[in-house]
Design a protein that fits this description.
The chain is 39% helix and 22% strand. It has 238 residues and is an alpha/beta fold.
C-alpha cells in the first residue's frame, strides 16, 4: 500500500453530508484510515486516541471554533492541518496560516483539489529521505530520525513545517537556499505570498537550534536571497 495513503486522516466538520462525501471520495482514492468528528470535543478525543497524520478542520464548529481546536491539537501533535471553512475573509485565512496551519481551503471547493493538496502535504511531510546522522550544534543535538532537538536531557519537537525547512537547508548545507526554494519545499506550487510566514517559521526554528537565537551562528540570513545552514566553520560573507 502507498505509504502516504496509509496515513490516518481525521475530518472534523459539523456537516454530516460533507463528511460522508469526503469520506467516500478519499476512500475511492485509496485512503482507508479515515476518522470523522462533528465537534471540537469529538475531534480532539479522536486525534489523541488515533495519533492522526493529517487533520482537515472546519473553522466553524458547534462547540467552539477550529482555531481553538488547532491550538489544543498542537499541544500534543505536530501533524499537518488544513483548515476547511465557509469563511473567505482574508483575516481568517491569515489567522489560520499565521498559527502554523499547512493550508486553507474555502467552501465550496472541488473535492479533487482538496485531495491533491492534502496528498502533496502528506508527501512533503512524510515521504522524505532522512539524513542518517545527527547534527551537533554546541549544546544541542538535532535528531532527524525523531524530528527533534535534544538540549541536555530536554527534547524539543520540530513542527512539520520546521522539519521540512530544516531538511531542505540540510540538503544544501553550507550553501544559500533561496526564499522561493524554501517556500516551494514547505508549501508546494502555490507558495506565493508565504514569504512572511517563512520568516516566522525560520525564527521559531532558530529558537530551537540556536544557542542565541537573536545572534544566530548556524541558521544565517542571506539578505535579499534566503537562508543558509552552516554545519562547518567557514567564512560567511554574502
Amino acid at each position: 500500500m502507498d505509504e502516504v495513503k496509509n496515513k490516518k486522516i481525521l475530518l472534523v466538520d459539523d456537516e454530516p453530508e460533507l463528511l460522508e462525501m469526503l469520506e467516500n471520495a478519499l476512500f475511492k482514492e485509496g485512503f482507508y484510515h479515515l476518522y470523522t468528528a462533528g465537534s471540537c470535543r469529538e475531534g480532539l478525543k479522536t486525534a489523541r486516541e488515533q495519533k492522526v497524520a493529517l487533520m482537515i478542520l472546519d473553522v466553524g464548529l458547534p462547540d467552539g471554533n477550529g482555531f481553538a481546536l488547532f491550538e489544543d491539537f498542537r499541544k500534543f501533535s505536530d501533524a499537518p492541518v488544513i483548515f476547511l471553512t465557509a469563511r473567505g475573509e482574508a483575516e481568517d485565512r491569515l489567522q489560520g496560516l499565521g498559527m502554523g496551519a499547512d493550508d486553507y481551503i474555502v467552501k465550496p471547493f472541488l473535492t479533487k483539489e482538496l485531495i491533491l493538496r492534502m496528498t502533496a502535504i502528506l508527501k512533503r511531510t512524510y515521504r522524505t529521505q532522512l539524513p542518517m546522522e545527527e547534527l551537533i550544534f554546541s549544546d544541542r543535538v538535532i535528531r532527524f530520525d525523531t524530528a527533534s532537538v535534544c538540549i541536555g536531557k530536554k527534547e524539543v519537537s520540530l513542527t512539520a513545517k520546521e522539519f521540512i525547512l530544516l531538511k531542505k537547508l540540510y540538503e544544501n548545507k553550507n550553501r544559500i537556499v533561496t526564499n522561493d526554494a524554501l517556500c516551494l519545499a514547505a508549501w508546494g506550487d502555490g507558495y506565493y505570498g508565504y514569504e512572511n510566514t517563512l520568516m516566522v517559521h525560520i525564527r521559531r526554528l532558530r529558537e530551537k537550534i540556536e544557542t542565541e537565537p537573536s545572534c544566530p551562528k548556524r541558521l544565517l540570513t542571506a539578505k535579499g536571497l534566503g537562508y543558509k545552514l552552516v554545519v562547518k566553520d567557514e567564512s560567511n560573507n554574502f
